[in-house]
Amino acid sequence: MSAESTPAEVTRSRPVCLFLPSFGDGGVERMMTNIAHGIAEQGFVVDFVVGPPDAPYLDTLPASVRLHHLTERDRRARRRFLHDYVERERPAIVLTAKTDDDRVALAVKSSQSGDTRYVLRPGTTQSERWSARGRNPLKRWWERYQLTRLYRRADGIIAVSHGVAEDVAAITGLPLDRIRVVRNPNITPELEQSALAPLDHPWFAPGEPPVIMGVGGLRLQKDFATLIRAFAQVHRQRPCRLLILGQGRQRERLRRLAGELGVGEAVELHGFDPNPYRFLARAGLFVLSSLWEGSPNVLTESLALGVPVVATDCRSGPREILQNGRYGPLVPVGDVEALARAMEETLRQPLAPEVLREAVNDYRLDVSARGYLEAFGLVG
């Protein structure tokens, strides 16, 4: 260090590395992209290790974020890549957000003697995930054992909600005060701009019935079957439509279900769209029907856009975001009748957009980025 350099300046010059080579099109990827964006805007060097160069969301990053593309699926190749990167760049922090990437990063940590700190970002309530997937006791014990070993080796843990933090503490036995909670950076300067993008879809034309929306992968966690069943009940009471953005293996099953319930013409499984906000901003209602969550991004984003919401009271996130139902009804997981009632009541008497936006101030990009930097120990 030169005589003129301060420790803060030296720390700021060392990269913050986000390690997410298994890059898809989900909420984790979107939030890690936003985290990279926010930290870069705070004046820090950011390196982002990702998969293919055409992966979703990467085109939203500022030019200052340095992308490192790693396309090998083999864990050894990923470990070797990260090991060489750490040796070369000496990042201050390596942040991971998926369990397989956590394992790779902590294997690199154990093989090196530098002062890089390795931080894990759990994004869901793992115990609820195990329960919903019917893990047998032996399998659950083994996964709990593996996660406990993993988390105890990390230099830091940042949870996306208090519910996730409590779940990690219960699984691993770690003290709750060792787990920091930083809200997801959902609300970005680009969110409102993206919401204003044109949308050429006949359902959203003036005078059409309200569109109810669901967003997420077509998989067990999101429980879109319950949403479709609840929608069928609402549809019998009033004209409305249901549009679900997302793709996944349950697509054909959900399409058949809508047909069997007599609402096939009123339900559209639209697939993945890189800009869901232009749909959300024009929706009459957003519904989160999940069996479990960490901190559901699209629920926060819907509120930020002033869109009325209904959510299952799953662990965790919805109750925290909606502040015990103040900003939208919470219904029991899997309860079709309760969900249908809440949807119909919210369509009939929605909260004002300015009230809904009050709920999500802590989810702004600048607030979240500052929270991550404080948790990393890079700012006071």
UniProtKB/TrEMBL annotation:
GO BP: carbohydrate derivative metabolic process
Residue spans crossing the bilayer: none
Molecular-function GO term, any one: glycosyltransferase activity
All residue ranges annotated as the Glycosyl transferase family domain in the record: 205-358
Domain of life: Bacteria
Keyword annotations of the record: Transferase
Domain Glycosyltransferase subfamily 4-like N-terminal, chain residue ranges per copy: 26-184
One Pfam family linked to the record: Glycos_transf_1
SUPFAM superfamilies (alphabetical): UDP-Glycosyltransferase/glycogen phosphorylase
Name of the featured protein: Glycosyl transferase group 1
Organism: Allochromatium vinosum (strain ATCC 17899 / DSM 180 / NBRC 103801 / NCIMB 10441 / D)
Classification lineage: Bacteria, Pseudomonadati, Pseudomonadota, Gammaproteobacteria, Chromatiales
